[in-house]
Specification:
The structure is a homodimer of 248-residue chains.
Chain A (H helix, E strand, L loop, with lengths): L9 H8 L6 H8 L4 E5 L4 E3 L7 E7 L2 E6 L5 E7 L18 E4 L3 E7 H10 L1 H27 L2 H18 L7 E3 L4 H8 L3 H13 L3 E4 L2 E4 L2 H8 L16
Antiparallel strand pairs in A: 1-7, 2-6, 3-7, 4-5, 4-6, 8-10, 9-10
Helix pairs in contact in A: 3-4, 5-7, 5-8, 6-7
Chain A binds a DNA duplex (30 and 30 nucleotides) through α7.
Chain lengths: 248, 248
DNA sequence: CGAAGTTTTGAGGACCTTCAAAAGTTGTGG
DNA sequence: CCACAACTTTTGAAGGTCCTCAAAACTTCG
């Protein structure tokens, strides 16, 4: 956190401002946040369930997941986060972490104290609303997953997750929407969609056999977007790309 | 909405104030909201997915669910709401409803315009934070369900949902924590936990055979709380009864 | 090049689904 | 207040999806 390398939050601010007016003062207050830069290696449990919440994190680079552990030790990944995402903004409101955070690739995180976040919302209601919206999108994604996990076949779940990645990588310029690098293992996919690694493997084989996707090494290519979207019943609206509604 | 019956929002305000300071002015502004009272019959789809969001609703009485429909017409219930709950506060931030709302019993709802809600957050940042926290608790419940639905057996899922009801009915004084009236059908339970009605029935029979619960008509009695909590791995912390953390 | 990690294959079995029908309960109108 | 209709719960049986365990083939990385 040395002075010569104060993290640049402009990209993250831009995300919050998507389609909505935020005053110059609020923007400046956000950029002035005392952020700390942290480099984290691969497969590090950066935050653990049950710890007190001190700081919350932006993803500057890397692929990161939030997860819950259950009794018998397994993980359920509840969300993935890419560059530009604010991972756990809403932790600012709670005292104890209710999920873990782990890196899947070497990553760079910017962290700020929860208290600084709360102060921003007190001073600038418009930022409070932006943070609220961020939590809302989170909730919408969880809702979608409840539906996915509760009511869809293994193939559909895997297809849906791949499409979500394609969409989100495209949104941050790391994909053309068809081809992207997904640096996670099939075991991680299993933890995310609630299936065994073996069955993930068979589901991927089926998607390949139908010429819906191709994969090599960690690259995924969607071969037949239309058919894949149809079989997964993927509708991107749940990611709320339009941004929040404003006071009229 | 005639003047002689202006809905009384004090009970709902009390819920938002749980353990946190809200200024007298903000409280008054909340109570002055122009709320409309609506009586709704049983099994009415009060809000439909895809409609524009105009108003959002408090539950004054009744049992109400939010749900998503999937391609083939089935429902996934994503949450239940009891007296005192603000069902879809966060709809204020989005333009199109992403879920339906239906009553399971005859109910009374209070509704206010989304714009009035947004105005409150602009005028009183502390209310904005309270609303943000409400959405956070929502998100936490969805996360929990992703874990439940993704990783637990039918019996555990059913047990967990019954415990959530016991806990929430107790919190609003409609149960001693052991016995409560659950006015929904097994088919509704099935829609909530992502199982077939037949299997819900068999799971309930198993819970009864183990002397964990008893049921008659629409009444549920938890016979062995300790064992049920253990088998369902139920921890109420995810409902965040402690309220939000405050700026220090 | 060898070791560790990851993906793939096979087999047997558990859990949950679907379909269908019987039994029981609730609500309504005569 | 009873009779009947509609709904809900329960039972049975067959079958599919997904799981576990275990080992082999393949990749990646030091």
């Amino acid at each position: 956190m040395s002075a010569h390398s104060k993290p640049d939050l402009r990209a993250h601010l831009a995300k919050f401002m998507r389609g909505r007016p935020i005053s110059k003062e609020a923007q400046q207050a956000f950029l002035d946040l005392d952020a700390k830069r942290q480099e984290v290696g691969m497969y590090q449990d950066f935050v653990r369930e049950g710890e007190p919440t001190e700081r919350c994190c932006f993803v500057e680079s890397g692929l990161i997941s939030r997860y819950k552990t259950w009794r018998t030790g397994g993980r359920q990944i509840i969300s993935f986060h890419l560059r530009g995402d604010f991972i756990d903004l809403s932790s600012s409101l709670i005292k104890i972490q209710d999920h873990g955070i782990r890196t899947h690739t070497p990553s760079v995180l910017f962290t700020v104290t929860c208290n600084d976040i709360l102060r921003l919302t007190a001073d600038y209601p418009e930022l409070g609303r932006a943070f609220w919206f961020d939590t809302l999108v989170d909730a919408a994604i969880f809702q979608k997953w409840t539906l996915n996990v509760g009511r869809r076949t293994a193939r559909e779940r895997v297809a849906h997750l791949l499409l979500e990645f394609a969409y989100r990588f495209e949104a941050i310029g790391q994909s053309d929407g068809r081809e992207f690098i997904l640096p996670i293992t099939q075991a991680d996919l299993a933890d995310a969609v609630g299936l065994s690694p073996v069955h993930i493997n068979r589901s991927l084989q089926w998607l390949r056999s139908q010429r819906l996707i191709r994969t090599f090494s960690k690259t995924v290519i969607i071969e037949d977007m239309e058919a894949l979207v149809a079989m997964a019943d993927f509708r991107s609206a749940y990611l709320h790309p339009e941004g929040p509604r404003e006071l009229t």
